[in-house]
């Protein structure tokens, strides 16, 4: 099974949609570089919860990109790995994060939990109703992809550019 890059969030709440916007950018890149989409599953998880159960089950590598309230400056990035992820999501900022926490718990119970799980979290500037990211978070997007490349390298996987 291919490594999964999962973007979650609500694009109707400004920066809450950063994960979805990130995977949309990756999907465009995959259209240009077919080898990238051949190596990775890129999924827009939106605000799904338990619907993601089969998508996440038995993966060796899962990288989730999402907005997180972590007490950082807007646009700052937080990276959490493995057991840190469900612990962080249990203090949810939105219903989809509780849904993902439930999915991870279910996967653990059925022994289908991802072997390597990573969260790239971006501190939002605004969660107000608005379509589109704030300028602050939009400017953080290149750093999200730099972090993603670092994580892929740590996992021994091809980076976005190779």
UniProtKB/TrEMBL annotation:
Keyword Signal among record annotations: no
Domain of life of the organism encoding this protein: Bacteria
InterPro entries: Pept_HybD-like_dom_sf, Peptidase_A31
A Pfam family: HycI
GO molecular function, one term: enzyme activator activity
Group of enzyme by EC: hydrolase
Keyword Transferase: no
EC number: 3.4.23.-
SUPFAM superfamilies xref list: HybD-like (SSF53163)
Swiss-Prot/TrEMBL keywords: Aspartyl protease, Hydrolase, Protease
Family under the similarity heading: Belongs to the peptidase A31 family.
Name of protein: HyaD/HybD family hydrogenase maturation endopeptidase
Source organism: Exercitatus varius
